Amino acid sequence: MKKTSSTIIAAALAVGLLAGCSSGQEEGPAASPAQPSSSGAESAGEPNAFGWIKPAQTTVIDFYQADRDNPDKVARDTVRLHDYLLNNFNVDLKKTVYDVDPKERLNLMLASGEYPEVIAAMDDDTVDKWKAQRKIIDLTPYVDQYGQNIKKALGDKYKTYLDEDGKLWGLPRGWGYLPGPDFTAHIRMDWYEEMGSPKIETPEDYYEVLKQMVAAHPTNAQGEKVYALSWNDQVNINNVMGIWGLKDGYKEDADHNLVHWLNTSEGLEAARFYNKIYRDGLLDPDLFINKFDDWKTKFANERIVGHIGSWWHSWNAGHEIWRNSVPDYQEDMRYVQIAIKAAGAENAYLSPKDARGWNYTVLTDKAKNPEAIIKFLDFTMSPIGTRLLGWGVPNEEDSLWNYEGDDKWSFNEAQKTALLDGTFDYEKSDQLGGNRFWLVHGQGLLEDDNKSTAWYDQNFVDEDKWKKLMYDNTKDTVYDNTARRVVFSVDNPYTLVNQQIEDLVKNGFAQAVTRKTEDEFVSTFNELRDKANKLGLQDLEKYRTEEYKKQLEILNQ
Amino acid sequence: MRDYLKPTLGSRVFDTANVVFMLVFCALMIYPFLNLLAISLNDGVDAARGGIYLFPRKLSFSAYELLFQNKKMLNGFMWSILRVVVGTVACLLATGLLAYLVNIRHFSGRKFMRILFFITMYFNGGFFPVYLLIVNLGLTNSFHVYWLPALFNVYFMLLISSYIQNQPDALFESARIDGAGEFRIYWKIVIPICVPVFAAVSVYLAVSHWNSWFDVVLYNPSGKFDTLQVYLRRLLLEMEGLQQIRDQQVLYNRYRDLSPLTLRAATTIVVTVPILLVYPFVQKYFIGGIMLGSVKG
Amino acid sequence: MNTWRRRIAKERQIWIMTVPMIVWVLVFSYYPMYGMIIAFQNYVPGNSFFSGDWVGFAHFERFFNSPDFGTIMRNTFAISGLNILFGLPAPLILALLLNELKNKAFKRFTQTLSYIPYFISWVVVASILFTLLGSDGLLNKLLIDFGFIREPISFLGEGKYFWSILTTSNVWKDVGFNSIIYLSALASIDREQIEAGKVDGIGRFGTVWHIYLPGIRTTIILLWILGLGGILNAGFEQQLLIGSPTTAEYSEVIDTYVYKYGVQLGYYSFAAAVNLMKAVVSVLLVIGMNRIAKKFFDTSIL
User: Fold this and answer.
1) Which residues of A touch B71 (CB under 8 A)?
2) CB distance from C72 to chain A under 8 Å?
3) B13 Cβ under 8 Å from any chain C Cβ
4) Where are the domains of chain C?
5) Domain A43-177+357-457 in this protein, CATH class
6) ipTM, 2 dp
7) CB neighbours of residue B59 within 10 Å
8) Closest by Cα among A147, A168, A142, A53 to A371
9) Which of A221, B74, B121, C256 stands 20 to 30 A from A6 (CA)?
10) What Rg value do the Cα atoms of chain A yield, rounded?
11) Which parts of chain B sit beneath pLDDT 50?
């Protein structure tokens, strides 16, 4: 008895182990192999309305997108467009996302050898790593053969994506130049009009108006204190510095030499501006503690009259909430973007635009039929293909747009009116799949009309009076920043220095702004500058300048 | 009542103070839960304005309605229960047996076994080798990955072992003299006298299995065995992925798409309540003495 | 030789039972340990673990020479030390107090409530702290109303408050959960002994001191030794969520630093080196503490 029982427990554990292995093998990894369709076997059938010839065999593009996203929402929002593409294009487009850190997931894929045929949203550094291990393929032969639209869309820029051997390892996503402002100063519209819309040109004017506004509205409806400005974890110091004429945190001279704001008088002035408001008690004392949600609560409760940061902050935390919760909501209860520029600055450089794209879509060495995949990617880079992937399923009652064929298309008036009136149902229209499959298309103005863009809600700038106001007020603050791109990869000796200085500056700026006297502020600022220089800030400036000049040369060729 | 049982004045003052302390303590412990409950029962848009403490300002059940529309939640609930039951029972019995074996005085390998397991408490190969192992064993996308790699737990081995150490050795010796095998002693004597510590460890194990989500998303990419906790994390972590994004238009879309605060609160409530019910259920096993007496007798 | 063989024969059934255990631990714990060697390489994921370029102790040196090393170690020891100082005894005291409650229903109710905070994620805790301790949070309102201060104090924005806030939240979150094991240990104490103590008239405090505490001594020693062994683990998520740029000088600890400068930047070998160092320190500490416990309390956890 005693022997049997101990043998049984030992056996049970061993069986458990084995069972674990075997059952796992039966189920196997969930990689669904694409049915290979040899490139020659396609029927030369009639092209569909989009000019696309359906392949005889379904083209399966089962891709992992390296973004941290909610898989449930992705599944919900892609199903309609997936079915549309399958029926009309015979392309089976499947997007997989995980809610884990994408860098980690990619590394695990690399280490275990289990990865799909196509991966979207890979950054420069990761592309290099996968290339070095020969896990992704050179796309030039396929693009040369099937990529007319790709080459046309990228134009002269195409060659900048090639490596030194003239090979193309990934196609860019979200490339192109959308001339919309990202960051700017904001002011509460109805209160500003109440004051008689005084002129605002410099940061000092802006502060003066905010001061008077706070004096007129010292507390909100709940009796809580109102502040002139605040900050949240989405606000970036470098963007703020643009008001003082710095470009993405650096001062650039005529020879394209870059100096970090810590080593400039403009940087000191910018920090002093914030410190002054803090010392006057008009800056939210929790400005550096606020997470976006905390800031949003304050903003929505009408406790912050100004904002220097991204335009959508004031939408998300302002009128998009008020519209649905304030009983007698008036449309000018919202924030508008205004342009301010420090007295000595040649221009306010607020919105840097990197036209190169966010990251890349690559084909791995497991791709069985790269030709077919590139053919479809090429279609999505054509203007009409970009529209289809950008705006989602056409020709249905709730569609955002209608397509008649022959490149003739129009917006759905009902949806457009809803968007302009602020009654647009985002959650429902997200399910049309617009921009949910973002493989290679751009976000700039499309070449055929030089007007429309893949972002549906950015198509009506002229008709939407608030958007028009924003564009008109701030169009001079947008600038091309593509050449400033620097990749801080694992083997870049400046990666650590850069990170250390970024941390130091983030913490030090917060310390300086919250100093109680001007003298303390100046000494904190100087200390910060000396510390940063000691860590190697000047070397970093030199490195960035070199890289910048190199890129300028490539881009201007 | 005999004299020695009569409470002294000091004793009564202590009792009162203790009750008062516990009431304050309870209030501190339950506040965040009540706060979440209030938020979850509030209207979504209104909740964004903050200022909700103990009661909803604008009552609405829409968060719960939305939550229960998700059919996958029920599936997740079933996997969670299965994982908790299988994982807890397997680990408890296996670890308990190990703890007993390393406590048998005449077992020459007891030091060896203790050290063998103790080392693994601190030294591990890190992320990649463990992942590769799980992949190579074919444990990905299978239920076994939830219990097999966590079959033995060194920390609980030490806990149960310290409990067994406190028991009189004579208990096991007499059984051995009667000719009982070690497994029989484990089953018939060790488990009954260890009920309190097994109960405590099972609470810990159940909670850790219930709360696990990282191994689920890591080893179960197909989503077939997603547990309830995964759905909660999915909502709580939605914001996390946004740190890397620079493009403001993308951010605008992603932030607009975030699940409302009320839904996050409602999900926390729904995911937390089932596991809270485990503790009251095992508390009755914390009354000791009885089992010990019966074994001895 | 013969006695040895006889001994093995006698222990055969125990050894048979240990076979699957040994197999399990070799497969799931020892086999993956080859991964530790990346601490001495420049490992790139996807490359073989044995082909990497060897850099010796470079990553260890980098950690010891990093400009913030002093601050990081100070914060780690301070936060961890406070956690040990308050976090280790608190659950024991709670368990003893719960044990003294007469009303069983109330005791159960309190016990159950006490472990709720363990399930509240740090994200939620951080947002509750903000509403309580922010510049216009509840605490500041109370302090101003009662006239203690005139201007609100930025509790979350000033470094000097950070450690206490973190320790309080840690204790609050874990005290109930960690008391479970003490409650179960208290249940193991023989009733007869307690009754005998009452007859001797040692009083309630005496019962606690002479019967309860010695009765659960092994559990206490075990948990405290293991707790001390974790001195280099000062937390991670709570620092990221409760910390801010103005408190960074007090919130950066080993784990947050390794995450930021190792994992996020792709220096996996650096992260592995620091983890290896932490493991060695922990094991040395635990073994050392165990020696002391053996000498003074005649209890060994190994």
Assistant:
1) none
2) no
3) no
4) 1-56, 62-297
5) alpha beta
6) 0.90
7) 10
8) A142
9) B121
10) 27
11) 1-3, 289-297
